[in-house]
Amino acid sequence: MGNSKIVITKDGMSGRLDRRSFLSGSAASLGALGLAGCVTSDDMGRAEAAKFYAAVPSEKFPIPAVDISKIDPKYFRRLVRYDTKEAPGTIIIDPKNYHLYRVEGDGMATRYGANVSRPGFLWSGEVYVGRKAEWPTWTPPKEMIARQPEARQYARGMPGGLDNPLGARVLYLYKNGVYTVYTIYSTSDPETIGNGITSGCTGLLSQDMIDLYSRTPVKTKVVMLPA
Questions:
Q1: Least packed by Cβ within 10 Å: which of 14, 52, 140, 155?
Q2: What single-letter DSSP state applies at residue 226?
Q3: Locate the L,D-TPase catalytic domain: which residues (predicted)?
Q4: pTM beyond 0.85
Q5: CA distance linking residue 72 with residue 76, whole number of Å
Q6: Are the C-beta atoms of residues 54 and 39 closer than 8 Å to each other?
Q7: Per-residue exposure over 63-100, b if at least 16 CB sit within 10 Å of its own CB, e if not
Q8: Which domain holds residue 138?
Q9: Per-residue model confidence as pLDDT tens digits over 173-185
Q10: Looking at the domain assignment, is residue 126 inside a domain?
């Protein structure tokens, strides 16, 4: 896995112009020719991303649109080239680069931007999806309550909803029939993507998590790469 080679096939971000220097330089003369305001690759990438991250009003708890201006374009959902020996459907988490991949086969994978574990909680290895849930109840593990006593108020569970830390969908990760306390969960906070903030879990934007969840059955293999 350490030798996996990633080549983006549908990026639109590579070779982008520095818009600030462009506008402060030759934009005036181009404007005279009617060329000012041409759409850059960055603009096109965000326009495409806006479709993925639109509001989802049909959910039990309507999900708002994502403010994509708060996300680095490299974390937008994309189909990419990804060389791996893992079977189609396998989930591979790359905490070093804040990405999660769903292997599609034929050397391709769907890549999602993610938040990952903060220092001190990083782990690696193979697990699997033991169960899954929509708008789940969140119950903080005893280890969290010990570290953060304020979480004790939810010791009997926090009902599902937009304020629930697990969000709209969650995949519970198991090892040898035992729940690891780690999950792949959904978040509505775009500023967490590309950061290490959790105690071992991996978060995707709600719209991305709904997409992954719909294509991930119980028993799916999950590989956490070393950071």
A1: 14
A2: -
A3: 89-225
A4: no
A5: 8
A6: no
A7: beebebeebebbbbbbebebebebeeebbbbbbebbbb
A8: 6-12+43-224
A9: 999 999 999 999 9
A10: yes
The answer to whether position 26 is within a domain reads no
Rounded to 5 degrees, φ, ψ at 161 are 160, 175
Q: 189 near 71, Cβ under 8 Å? A: no
Instruction: Report which residue type is found at 19.
Output: R
Length of the chain: 227
Q: Tokens 């041409």 map to which residue?
A: 38
Q: Specify the 3-state DSSP secondary structure of 22.
A: helix
For the chain, the domain total comes to 1
- Asked if the structure places residue 184 within a domain, the reply is yes
The kind and range of the H/E element at 32 are helix 27-32
* 97 belongs to a structural domain: yes
| Alpha carbon distances (Å) from 46 to 52, 78, 117, 164, 184 | 10, 12, 27, 28, 25
CB 223 within 8 A of CB 93: yes
Residue showing tokens 């937008």 = 76
- Whole-number Å distance between alpha carbons of 133 and 150: 25
| Cα–Cα distance for residue pair 140/180, rounded to 1 Å | 13
Structure tokens at 31: 């404007």
User: Which CATH number is 214's domain given?
Assistant: 2.40.440.10
Pairing between strand 125-134 and 169-175?
A: antiparallel
Q: What is the pLDDT of residues 34-78, one digit of tens each?
A: 333 444 455 657 888 999 999 999 999 999 999 999 999 999 999
